[in-house]
Amino acid sequence: MDIFVAVHTNGSVIGTIGCKVEHEGEGHLRGMAVKPEWQGSCLAADLLARAEEELRNAGCSTITLDTTQPLRRAVRFYEKHGYQPTGRVGDFFGMPLFEYRKYIGNGKTIED
């Protein structure tokens, strides 16, 4: 897994995101977090773009991520950046875990 860390000029960590190739042609995002005072800035979008670029360069044409219902702000953020629910629901310690996917090749959308 590749981890990208955004660091403030004072040396403090202000955001992170992880990504890895799961299967041939498919990447996965994990652990995106941005300190509250940086939410709403371009930091989250920059971290996401960097992880997507890494996965694209690794040959991925789709990217998945998982999130939970209480993280509505994160869900809106991912949807705004082209991620769509796949309908797959897992379990995260008794809480529904919703999968989202984005097609990153040729600007097309994915059909399930």
Identify the CATH architecture.
3-Layer(aba) Sandwich
**Main β-sheet description:** 6 strands, mixed
State the separation between the terminal residues, measured CA to CA. Answer: 26 Å
Strand content: over 45%
Helix content: 10-25%
Low-confidence stretches are 106-112
CATH class: Alpha Beta
The assigned structural class equals alpha+beta
Q: CATH homologous superfamily name? A: Gcn5-related N-acetyltransferase (GNAT)
In CATH, the topology is named: Aminopeptidase
User: What is the count of β-strands?
Assistant: 6
Order of helices and strands: EEEHEHEE
Average residue-wise pLDDT: 91
Output the radius of gyration: 14 Å
What does the overall shape look like?
A: globular
Order of the strands making up the biggest sheet = 1-2-3-4-6-5
- Helix count equals 2
Q: What is the domain total for the residues?
A: 1
Fold topology:
Elements: E1 2-7, E2 13-23, E3 26-34, H1 43-57, E4 62-68, H2 72-80, E5 84-92, E6 95-103
Give your account of this protein's structure.
There is one protein chain. The protein has 112 residues and is an alpha+beta fold. It is built from 2 helices and 6 strands. It has one domain (2-103): Gcn5-related N-acetyltransferase (GNAT) (Aminopeptidase).
What's this, in brief?
Helices cover 21% and strands 46% of the residues. With 112 residues, the protein is of the alpha+beta class.
Question: What distinguishing features does this structure have?
Answer:
six-stranded mixed beta sheet; Aminopeptidase; alpha+beta; 2 helices; 112 residues; 46% strand; disordered C terminus
